[in-house]
């Protein structure tokens, strides 16, 4: 057990005093190499004003891994229309790397459909009247409602079977496109229960329980999905997907699933993300 340095304790207190969001603080600390569970404890202790020393060594997690949704055996998951190959699996946190989730043709179709929707979000340039894409944030996105059309419905069914969770508990498939420099800073996909703002999200469908990120293209350089607290890096591969879960049957959440999208260094990156909720969503 080591103690979080005085500098970090001061940093936490100062940022809380400035009104920074707790989750962002934990994510920044994790990015700097601090165990996110220890970072979370530091933030909680600072919020409650205690000066006790804070453990940043191995931390006993409250999260119970006893009944993962993703089976912990087998190399193939048979869905109603496709055999998906498990190429890597771990139990704590529950993570699985899946190959052959989408055909190349399905990846291209998703990109084309999303591109059409993305193109609709243009503004008219007041200087010359031409349509142009709204300011480049390094990433842009759109989503498809659950069962929006026959193609999306077939994917929603397959994805639900892979995630071992009902279609109706899923949020609509989200498509993200990152250009060079585009990234997604480390974050949790669940809604932090201690945050006031989470209430509105939790009211509909409850907590998020699991995520499937589908890679729609090969990225020339960069754009890996990174899990800083478990030191896992997933290289995007067209048609493959990374699955992870972070909310168990008791409603506990697993902070070791902190993850982000590393900056794209060359080329571009297209992904589709499915989030599952505890209950029926929508
Ligand atoms: O871009 C990535 O690899 C991560 C995406 C992600 O974290 C999300 O969609 O929730
Ligand atoms: Fe995420």
From TrEMBL:
Gene3D superfamilies, A to Z: q2cbj1_9rhob like domain
InterPro entries noted in UniProt: Oxoglu/Fe-dep_dioxygenase_dom, P4HA-like, Pro_4_hyd_alph, Pro_4_hyd_alph_FE2OG_OXY
Keywords: Dioxygenase, Iron, Metal-binding, Oxidoreductase, Vitamin C
Cofactors: L-ascorbate
Keyword Iron (UniProt): yes
Pfam families in alphabetical order: 2OG-FeII_Oxy_3
Location of the Fe2OG dioxygenase domain: 169-278
Molecular function terms, GO-annotated: iron ion binding; L-ascorbic acid binding; procollagen-proline 4-dioxygenase activity
Keyword Metal-binding: yes
Official protein name in the record: 2-oxoglutarate-dependent dioxygenase
């Amino acid at each position: 057990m080591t103690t979080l340095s005085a500098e970090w304790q001061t940093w936490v207190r100062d940022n809380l005093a400035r009104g920074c969001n707790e989750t962002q603080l934990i994510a920044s600390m994790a990015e700097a190499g601090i165990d996110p569970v220890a970072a979370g404890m530091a933030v909680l202790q600072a919020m409650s004003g205690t000066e006790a020393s804070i453990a940043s060594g191995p931390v006993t997690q409250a999260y119970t891994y006893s009944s993962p949704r993703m089976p912990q055996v087998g190399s193939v998951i048979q869905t109603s229309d496709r055999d998906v190959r498990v190429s890597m699996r771990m139990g704590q946190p529950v993570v699985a790397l899946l190959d052959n989730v989408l055909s190349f043709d399905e990846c291209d179709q998703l990109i084309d459909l999303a591109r059409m929707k993305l193109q609709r979000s243009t503004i008219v340039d007041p200087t010359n009247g031409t349509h142009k894409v709204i300011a480049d944030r390094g990433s842009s996105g759109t989503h498809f409602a659950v069962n929006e059309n026959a193609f999306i419905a077939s994917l929603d069914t397959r994805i639900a079977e892979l995630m071992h969770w009902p279609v109706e508990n899923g949020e609509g498939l989200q498509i993200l496109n990152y250009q060079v420099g585009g990234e997604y800073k480390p974050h949790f996909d669940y809604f932090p229960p201690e945050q006031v703002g989470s209430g509105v999200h939790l009211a509909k469908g409850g907590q998020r329980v699991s995520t499937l990120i589908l890679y729609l293209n090969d990225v020339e350089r960069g754009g890996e999905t990174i899990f800083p607290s478990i030191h896992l890096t997933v290289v995007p591969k067209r048609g493959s997907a990374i699955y992870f879960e972070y909310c168990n049957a008791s409603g506990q959440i697993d902070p070791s699933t902190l993850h982000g999208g590393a900056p794209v260094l060359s080329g571009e990156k297209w992904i589709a993300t499915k989030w599952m909720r505890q209950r029926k969503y929508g």
